[in-house]
Design a protein that fits this description.
Layout (H helix, E strand, L loop, with lengths): L2 E7 L6 H7 L11 E7 L5 H7 L3 E5 L4 H15 L4 E4 L11 H9 L5 E5 L12 H18 L11 E4 H6 L9 H10 L4 E5 L16 H19 L1 H30 L6 H46 L2
Parallel strand pairs: 1-2, 1-4, 2-3, 5-7
Antiparallel strand pairs: 4-6, 5-6
Helix pairs in contact: 5-7, 5-8, 7-8, 8-9, 9-10
Pfam family, one: Glycos_transf_2
Protein name: Glycosyltransferase family 2 protein
Keywords: Membrane, Transmembrane, Transmembrane helix
Length: 316
Amino acid sequence: MKIMIFIPALNEAASIARVINSLPKDLGGYGPPTVLVVDDGSTDGTADAARSEGAIVVRHATNRGVGGAFQTGHQVALEQGADILVSIDADGQFDPDEIPALLAPLLAGQTGLVTGCRFGPAGRPANMSKVKYWGNLVVAAVVRSASGTTLRDVSCGFRAYSREALLHLNLFGKFTYTQETILDLAFKNIPICEVPVKVRYFSDRRSRVAGSILRYAMNAGKILVRTVRDFRPFRFFGTLGSGVFLFGAALDVWLLVHYLRTGSYSPYKAVGFAGGLLNVCGILLVGLGLLADMLDRMRVNQERILYLLRKHDLGD
């Protein structure tokens, strides 16, 4: 059993060696894990610091975002024959001693992805801003609704993936990957569970992944919308089309009530045209959803072919 620990890093020269040295040297009798650091365009010697500690280092010439770093780590893990891939941040906010807790459900064959949950009975972790905390809860609610999971924390980067889950993953987002991996695997019926983990937030440290909460929310939102659009096209376009149609119908009803009261459409004829246009747009969107739902069968077949090709190329 080969266990690989993946660490995405951006300008973490001051902490990367400490994080690598704090990793468990033996995981459940499977020997020392292989450490993979993906340096996402650092300018401070992060790659050299990681390499000096014995880690495999893959360096991006330019910053590709944490999603791009994960895609590189994902590919390297498959090529290196990793049976389990553990991801952990490079700033030391997670406790490496909790890695065995992440591995336990995978080793028991219960699941394909184990993600850490930062939100325990105490609620918001210390030094986590209220805006970020509530933003995480909102995103988690959206992902739960879209995927049918019961996860409370869908944005935690402290995770463990089985090889089977890695073979199924097909990601596109460059900015982040945490929500996309959950949606992708959930839509492919790969079991997912979460375990409680401790986290430390540093009050004087700004996120190097998101840069700002607003930017993070916008980019994560785009990934969520695109993923639901691709995996649940009829639900996406059908819901949108129904909403547009009902709004148009409400305008039509309002205008009809006005006509019954006054005997004239004036001066609100434009409302009738707007309502009719919205009705047509709503019907077209629902029709587009039906067409996209039929085309989704092609995507499912292509995903299956990609999975089989990966297994064949990697000798699985």
